[in-house]
Amino acid sequence: MSNLFDSGLSRYGWTAALDHAFTEHHKAGLMPARIVRVNRGLCDAVTESGPTRARIAAAYSPDPLQAPCTGDWAALRPGPDPELVALLPRSSAIVRSSASRSSHGQVLAANIDIVAVVVSLAVALDAARLERLLALAWDSGARPLIVLTKADLAPDPAAAHAEAAALAPGVDVLVTSVTTGQNLDVLTALLSGSTTVLLGSSGAGKSSLGNALLGDELLATSEVRAQDGKGRHTTVRRELVPLPGGGVLIDTPGLRGIGLYDTTDGLEHVFAEIEDLARDCRFGDCAHHTEPGCAVLAAIEAGELTERRLNSYRKLQRENAWAASRKDARLRAERSNRQKAITSQLRATYKFRNRKS
Predict the structure, then answer these.
(1) Which residues form the EngC GTPase domain (predicted)?
(2) 25 assigned binding-site residue
(3) Alpha carbons 85 and 56: distance in angstroms, whole number
(4) What is d(CA 99, CA 253) in angstroms, rounded to the nearest whole number?
(5) Residue 43 marked in a binding site
């Protein structure tokens, strides 16, 4: 085993466990690196000897879910023209439905410990959007954290905190302000030593928050529209930077479309109270519409659950089921195409043999 986990690479999250997992790559003469950003067949990465730019091997998997992504740990072939040839298995990953709405998923960030869902208090809280982001966060395998920004512009930060907490059972909610410095020290302590990704809409204040945590203007920022609090995509690609107190931060472009991609586990976490209530329904396949003995509908009648919350749960379940069915159909088609190709190749081989005989 090497001593890389004691080197400069440890600043980016390299550990003894990762070093052990890299053993076979070490034997092959490859060097470990963490991907900082990816752009058009190239990736910027950091190695034990510093930053480098590497080509992504042309033979690498065409599956978007297997494509190199910010946060990945990679094996590079060293030399004057470094090449990325393999990735280490991911411990976690944020996956959404691709922007093209195809049956493929898109990985936003990999090997993260904390997903900081950033929400601006300068505008009214969008409950449905927060629930979507939380579903992605929970499903990633990382720990979600809600960071409410721009508290100095909020009419009632305490009420906003309570509203967000009610939408996110089991998730810590922190009210912050870059302008006043409110709770930035608390947030810094929470993120120390971890890989954290900032996730949220354009104009939520992700880059400004990131700069405050970094102690420098390393991430580009821009003004937002006063009428709706939205901004243009200042951050144009995902980027990983080390935090002064330990750990790393991944800034992401603002998300306009947040399509779900097989996020069943995430939805169960986000709507944990509905999942719990459903266990007491009279029928195991209760759809919570008009069925007698429905514990979910009873909770709405008693004022313990809102109709909006149940409607959001149903909508996201339908969307998730549709995405899963699209993925299943694509996988079936790919298997069928592979079988057809094998059959065609066998037929051609038999014809060739028959001609020779």
Answers:
(1) 110-256
(2) no
(3) 7
(4) 13
(5) no
- Tens of pLDDT, residues 226-274: 444 454 445 457 889 999 989 999 998 877 667 888 889 999 999 999 9
- Measured CA to CA, the distance from residue 43 to residue 332 in angstroms comes to 32
pLDDT digits (tens, 9 = 90+) for 138-164: 999 999 999 999 999 999 999 999 999
Separation CA 23–CA 314 (nearest Å): 46
Residue 204 annotated as part of some ligand binding site: yes
Q: Is 200 annotated as a binding residue?
A: yes
β-strand pairing of 73-77 with 31-39: antiparallel
Is there a binding annotation on residue 52?
A: no
**What do you get for the CA distance between the two ends of the chain, in Å?**
57
Q: Is 205 annotated as a binding residue?
A: yes
pLDDT, tens digit (0-9, with 9 covering 90-100), for 195-208: 999 999 888 999 89
151 annotated among ligand-binding-site residues: yes
Which domains does the chain carry? 4-87 (2.40.50.140), 93-251 (3.40.50.300)
Residue 206 annotated as part of some ligand binding site: yes
